[in-house]
Amino acid sequence: MSNGSLPLARFTVLDLCHARAGPTAVRQLADWGANVIKIEQPGESRGDVTGSRRDGFDFQNLHRNKRSLTLNLKTEEGKAIFFKLAEKADVIVENFRSEVKYRLGVDYESVKKVNPRIVYGSISGFGQTGPYAKRPGVDQIAQGMGGLMSITGLPGQGPVRVGIPIDDLCAGLLLAQAMLMALIEREQSGIGQWVHTSLLEAQIFMLDFQASRWLISGEVAKQAGNDHPTGIPTGVFPTSDGQINIAASGDHMFRRFCEAADAMALLDDPDYASGAQRSKNRKALNERIGEITTRRPSGYWIELMNEVGVPCGPINTIDQTFADPQVQHLEMARPVDHPKLGPIKVVGQAINMTRTPEPAKLRPTPELGQHTEDVLHELGYNDAAIADLRAREVV
Q1: Which of 193, 196, 48, 91 is nearest to 133 (CA)?
Q2: How far apart are CA 150 and CA 256, in angstroms?
Q3: Model pTM above 0.85
Q4: In terms of C-beta density within 10 A (0-12 exposed, 13-18 middle, 19 or more buried), how is residue 122 classed?
């Protein structure tokens, strides 16, 4: 499928982002066809502020399907070029600290003066206003402030970070959704708007039932390790050759498990007769289930439990995940032909569209400034003018 036939092909996006949250939002637009121009500082040697090399796995996965323009926004000429681009753009995305865009003069109000239709997307650490607005924010800080680290890990272990930058990723996905909503709304109103989120807001939103557990019931969640905090028994259980996940919460599912595992004694035990009893006696119940599951290998239990409709699955390492036949069927590893790195694979989209699917191959992450001349030519600059801009380190 050509890029022009993808759902977002008619939109032009200016990407001012660094690190991960903003690039995650832009990736959602780029992968679905938007004309993304990544604006980067001339002469940058690293991939971004995370320290990732440009040819490293992280940068290549984050910035595919974009074009790269080097532009020094601290110069008046660089800023003038930016506003020429902004006049024709549909979306601008940034994830500076909240005050930086104002210092550079590329904030929403400034852009709106030349393009009232612009959808301007922002991600910050803690929000655009408020007592922490000017603080620098990164994923782990937001995980701690947003309560996630207090409920992750084994009971009594102390705070534990989640093994992925979950706040960056969720904030990026939420901003992408917000920008798409703003583009849809623009079709009615004819004007754009500023949409923004933060790592902290995204983290609190993602607490979901653990947050409502406090807001409505007044319960402060604690670490539950591998056990589901409210659905019991759900957790990690030993087998004769490893460990598996089993989710047998609820009366019907618990009965199915007991019948399939030949563990009717558990059903007859008053300590496990109801959800409340199973919650009260969780530790003893898990130990008794573990005594049963350890008698057989993981594969046996996975096949048996899924046959009777009890959710059960392996605990894979990441290499095992990508070797799984279902993951391969879903094509979650997408090929890229990189001019320097050769054939590589990046993580595919988790969205499926029947008429406009994700292309079989994605376009590689650009080299620094790879498309500078192309973009400037599109704005009307000739070769001599571009050479002059380069000489003066504007681009």
Answers
A1: 196
A2: 33
A3: yes
A4: buried
Longest Cα–Cα distance in the chain: 86
Decide: helix, strand or coil at residue 43. Answer: coil
For the chain, 395 residues long, give each residue's pLDDT as a single digit of tens.
556 789 999 999 999 999 999 999 999 999 999 999 999 999 875 555 455 799 999 999 999 999 999 999 999 999 999 999 999 999 999 999 999 999 999 999 999 999 999 999 999 999 999 999 999 999 999 999 999 999 999 999 999 999 999 999 999 999 999 999 999 999 999 999 999 999 999 999 999 999 999 999 999 999 999 998 889 999 999 999 999 999 999 999 999 999 999 999 999 999 999 999 999 999 999 999 999 999 999 999 999 999 999 999 999 999 999 999 999 999 999 999 999 999 999 999 999 999 999 999 999 999 999 999 999 999 999 999 999 999 999 99
Tokens (6 digits) for 242: 């490893």
Residue in 170, 179, 224 with CA at minimum distance from that of residue 202: 170
Q: Hey, what long-range contacts does 271-280 have (CB within 8 A, 24 or more apart)?
A: 275/232, 275/249, 275/250, 275/251, 278/232, 278/233, 278/249, 278/254, 279/230, 279/232
DSSP state of 231: S
The partner residues of 124 in beta bridges, in order of sequence, read: 198
Domains and CATH numbers, the chain: 3-206+330-391 (3.40.50.10540), 234-315 (3.30.1540.10)
Residue 52 has a CB neighbour count (10 Å cut-off) of 19
Least Cα distance to 41 among 104, 113, 107 occurs for: 104
394: CB partners within 8 A, 6+ apart: 42, 71, 72, 75, 77, 78, 81
Is 167 known to be catalytic? no
Out of 31, 168, 227, 251, pick the active-site residue. Answer: 168
